[in-house]
Amino acid sequence: MLLAIETSFDDTGLAMLADDCSVVASQLSSSVQLHAEYGGVVPEIAAREHLTNLPAMLTLIRRNHGDALKELSAVGVTKGPGLPGCLLAGVAFARGLSYALDAQLFGLSHLEGHLYSPFFGCPLKEIPFPLLGLVVSGGNTVLYLVERFGERKVVGETLDDAAGELFDKISHRLGYGYPGGAKLEELARKHGPKPIREELALPIPMRDSGDLNFSFSGLKTAAVRMVEAQRQTSEEFDAEFAASLMRSAWESIWRKIEQATTRFGISVVSVSGGVAMNGLFRDYLTERGAERGLELYFPAPRLAMDNAEMMAYLLWLKLNAGEVLAPFDVESRLI
């Protein structure tokens, strides 16, 4: 048995897997409602929620899966990137748990957990390396070249705002609250595939940058100015505006994927992170990828957001790859 803990941001996750990668137990608690009034995550509130949730989750596992817990041989915990206080809460709890149960302790990368989430349950030999991995969420937008397991190279990353952060900030500006991605998707669906009027067209970020990096701060500024200058008190305007905003972001991301797959001669793309839950985003990339002969993989919806199952799967892969223990500490940097 192995167990993983995820506390990088505002979601507390704890999951146990058997040696065949089947899920024995999985728990997830979100504190998003506590942050909604602030328009974003408050680090201190999130960290305190982790400290409350983890003991309660472990109590439930001991009650329902006590025998499985006795067979625990390894504990994995997200060491970064993320909010420092949130990471410290998870790492401290994991250290105590591994000591109490005499289990090995592994520090895991949150972004690497997302990277492999579309392949959940697959043994190493079935993951189609080499691949291009896109992790796109509220805190990160990063592009990896993955030649083989354990060897990932950042080939592109956001220079400022992440894609999910863009949607959260614009949604808050429009008065739809936090988190914003789901609400903007709902609005964009009401506009459908109809063309965008010229006066509501937004720029495509980094379209001619010549590199594989992302930037969404300029698009955010353009969107805010458009809202201030043109917004009408109608849902029709908001729907067309949301569709325009998302299409600009999707096209920017697609162009980087297209450039990277051409540059590195790769036809397999893993797309993960919270933004990968967006159905319009999936449809957009799937359609464009099919035109280029690319094979795209997306995680199951439950594995797209921050969760402990994907971290447990990463730990399972590492153990099967024969990785050895190494000292670790919290690494809170965003990328």
Characterise the protein shown here.
The longest helix has 30 residues, at 235-264. The protein has helices spanning 32-35, 43-64, 66-70, 84-101, 110-116, 163-174, 181-191, 217-230, 235-264, 279-292, 301-304, 308-320, and strands at 2-6, 11-17, 23-30, 74-80, 104-109, 131-136, 141-148, 151-157, 268-272, 295-297. It has two domains: 2-118 and 306-320, ATPase, nucleotide binding domain (Nucleotidyltransferase, domain 5, 2-Layer Sandwich), CATH 3.30.420.40; 122-298, ATPase, nucleotide binding domain (Nucleotidyltransferase, domain 5, 2-Layer Sandwich), CATH 3.30.420.40. Helix 2 (43-64) runs parallel beside helix 4, helix 7 (181-191) crosses helix 9 (235-264) and helix 9 (235-264) runs parallel beside helix 10. The protein is globular, with a radius of gyration of 20 Å. It is built from twelve helices and ten strands. Strand 7 and strand 8 form a beta hairpin. The strands form two sheets. The protein has a five-stranded mixed sheet, with helices on both faces. The mean pLDDT is 93. The two termini are 30 Å apart. It is of the alpha/beta class and 335 residues long.
Notable traits:
single chain; 335 residues; alpha/beta; Nucleotidyltransferase, domain 5; 2 domains; five-stranded mixed β-sheet; 46% helix
CATH topology of the largest domain: Nucleotidyltransferase, domain 5
Task: State the order of secondary-structure elements, H for helix, E for strand.
Answer: EEEHHHEHEHEEEHHHHEHEHH
The neighbouring-strand order within the major sheet is 3-2-1-4-5
Quaternary state of this entry equals single chain
Rg from Cα: 20 Å
CATH architecture of the largest domain: 2-Layer Sandwich
Question: Helical region count?
Answer: 12
CATH superfamily membership of the largest domain, which one?
ATPase, nucleotide binding domain
Uncertain segments are none
CATH class wording of the largest domain: Alpha Beta
Largest sheet: 5 strands, mixed
Mean pLDDT: 93
Q: Span from first to last CA?
A: 30 Å
